[in-house]
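Researcher: Here's a chain I'd like modeled. Treat it as a single chain, no partners, no ligands.
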Amino acid sequence: MLVTGGAGFIGANFVHHTLRNHPEYEVSVLDALTYAGDRTTLSQVAADIEFVHGDICDAAVVDRLAADADVIVHFAAESHVDNSLRDPEPFVRSNIIGTYTLLEAVRRHGCRFHHISTDEVFGDLPLDGAEQFTEGTPYDPSSPYSATKAGSDMLVRAWARSFGIAATISNCANNYGAYQHVEKFIPRQVTNVLRGQRPKLYGAGENVREWTHVDDHNAAVHLVLSRGAVGGTYLIGSGDERSNKQVIRLILELMGHDPDGYDHVPDRPGHDLRYSNDTTKLRAELGWQPAYGDFRAGLAATVDWYRENEWWWKPHKEATEARYQVLGR
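Model: Modeled as a single isolated chain. Structure tokens:
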């Protein structure tokens, strides 16, 4: 199994999950180690994997690794909306050109291919409704990030239809858990509190996200790999929806602080209102159920992880906050 982006948040957790639960796989990781990739995330399993420092846009490297792979799981992507608003170019390069490069290698070597995507490709939903995204929801991306992920999804579908590659796609809700970069919402707020700083809330904080523990997400990906219909798409999500304001208040409560002890900052341009995935297909066809059905318990465990692993996140914190300061957020 080749895992692209395996030193990033979800990809690294996927590598750990695979080694714990699927010893039938020999795992190789390809990662460019951009600011969001951290090889120390894989330090505990370094002896059990092959690690290649390389770029998914490098056709020679990708071809060599694909030639030895039975399965490729494609996590590698630029993924932070704020960064895509500041500079879209790396998102076009990694998410579009990188996916194309992988698909061409898959076409040559006949690997099974699974593409990790996001529910952000669908745009957003009304705050006051009960609507949900489904596998058939039309794409309506709002940011350069989600637009490039939508484009990569379309490439995968086109290569499956035109060239017959054995591909599947999953579109996931917001993930949380260990090893998530401190630029992201939950770890940014947790690490701010740990450093004695007040958390930051975009706008009024009414935007709603569906939060899925990273281990539940990765268990779902393995089900799609083993039992999913080739050519199919599966939405992944816990069903637990929270406004950003509710999440930040819960973080403060779990950390023993006043739930109102946060600051409002200017909202993100084009900030999607609400995401919600209908995961009937994943649950009914593949029998998936989230192990972390209780968001409060999962968030408490995540807070504990960041409290106990300052060595991992502290080197990234100063640069991250400097970038946010430039944005005024």
